[in-house]
Specification:
The protein is α+β, with helices and mostly antiparallel strands. It folds into 2 domains: 40 residues, no CATH class; 134 residues, Immunoglobulin-like. The strands form 3 sheets. Strands 4, 5, 8 and 11 form a 4-stranded mixed sheet that branches. Helix 1 packs antiparallel against helix 2. The longest helix is centred in the middle third of the chain and has 18 residues. The N terminus is likely disordered.
């Protein structure tokens, strides 16, 4: 869909008249843009990182969080997919730990360097806030370095069109078991 006379403005910048006003480029537009004079409001996501301790969910501070639109976050999504398909531990591969360590390091680097909608670090009480221009779907990834857990990361997909809240379960459902 494109609208011939609609312009997005930030300072004196405008988009070409044939630019679609929906789709994969939308995450690049932030709340400082106006469409036909109306401000585009940011979506505010209130999150909490939690983990399982003695069958109870407890907050986790110090988790690095990245929120990605699915188009720009494709490298992060692809890395998570590769890690989920990893069979080295099941096949008793003698290099499984080294291979998975390398995959986790790559995931962390991608979370830190891939174009993100928003980034945050969870506070001591596990809370964090993400703020970004509306998008359809958002990949949220969190990781932290823990002495007692080698691979400490979690991810989820959320809707990105309206303010909401969610819990990023760092135990991957461990309390439900």
């Amino acid at each position: 869909m494109s609208v011939g006379s609609t312009a997005c403005r930030r300072a004196k910048a405008t988009l070409p008249a044939d630019t679609p006003l929906s789709g994969s480029h939308l995450p690049a537009l932030d709340s400082a843009y106006a469409i036909d004079g109306a401000a585009v409001a940011d979506v505010v996501i209130a999150g909490m990182t939690k983990d399982c301790f003695m069958k109870s969910m407890v907050p986790v501070g110090g988790v690095t969080i990245g929120a990605f639109a699915l188009d720009f976050g494709k490298p992060v999504h692809d890395q998570l997919d590769e890690m989920e398909k990893f069979t080295g531990f099941a096949t008793h591969d003698s290099l499984a730990f080294e291979k998975y360590d390398a995959m986790e390091t790559r995931l962390q680097n991608l979370v830190l360097t891939t174009r993100a909608l928003s980034r945050a670090t969870s506070a001591a009480d596990g809370t964090f806030t993400l703020k970004f221009a509306p998008v359809d779907s958002v990949l949220v990834v969190g990781f932290a370095d823990r002495e007692d857990e080698m691979y400490y990361f979690a991810h989820t997909y959320i809707r990105g069109r309206a303010d909401t809240s969610f819990v990023l379960d760092m135990s991957s459902g461990g309390c439900a078991q």
